[in-house]
Amino acid sequence: MAPARRGSVRGWFRHSRGWLGEISDAVVSVFFPSGCRICDRLLTSASRVPLCEECLSSFARVLGILCEVCGRLLPGLRREPEEPLLCPACQDKTYAFARARSFALYENAVVRAILLLKFEQIEPLGAWFADRLAEIVSAEGNAIAADVVVPVPLHRERERERGYNQAALLSKRLARKLRLPHKAVLLVRTRARPDKQVLSLEERWESVRGAFATRPDSQVDNLRVLLVDDVLTTGATLDACARALRDAGAKSVVGLTVARAIRNPLPGTRAW
User: Fold this and answer.
1) What residues pair up with 150 in beta bridges, in sequence order?
2) 16 within some domain
3) What does the pLDDT look like over 19-36, one tens digit per residue?
4) Residue 240 belongs to a domain with what CATH number?
5) What is the DSSP-derived secondary structure letter of residue 61?
6) Which residues in the chain belong to E strands, given as ranges?
7) Is the overall model pTM greater than 0.90, yes or no?
């Protein structure tokens, strides 16, 4: 069979697997309906996402006046013409990334959805969140321009325990939507997170300082990197990854996360 013919046949099989899977999911949802993994309402749609429309629509999106750099909500402030609006942390140039944006606030149903993503490898949920991140990229325009998509890595021991990296569930789908290369092995975590369940602000920053590196054979020079993770709490993880990428020669790093903490004061920055 000619190469072009083989390629077209493979493409047809990939496409057919997709719509056949959707048909089978629709049939299963009709004859064996299940409950929403958050509120237990009966799922009546053929969607593979195991959450009901009410829960999905309840996610509080990050909207309003935002810090130009880290995307933190700045309620009550007014943007002045020709002047960037920065939170105190970004006025102090705390972060190594150029920009960070998130889909929703880390509260209520979003917290439970993130836990499902983190510990149960629900790929349709990861795809749904990745589609929301793609919408952010589209809305931001040139402010989020990238050459490659990279997930925030887990330490190899943590990934071996869990069996997957939840950030990669997001980044792989996002890269496909944006038609960009996906480089899951470009960045590695060289030091594991402490066993302590709850970390103070100082401990959180210290636990990731110098904990990431690019692989020795990675080509990073002059790349604009889109860095993907599930939650932005203090920004310490995105900052540590961005520093490793910038030290390796990356031109810029922009962070995208599914959710972000509502308030995340930083050690050593001015009160606000």
Assistant:
1) 227
2) no
3) 445 444 444 444 456 899
4) 3.40.50
5) B
6) 99-105, 148-151, 187-189, 212-214, 224-232, 252-260
7) no
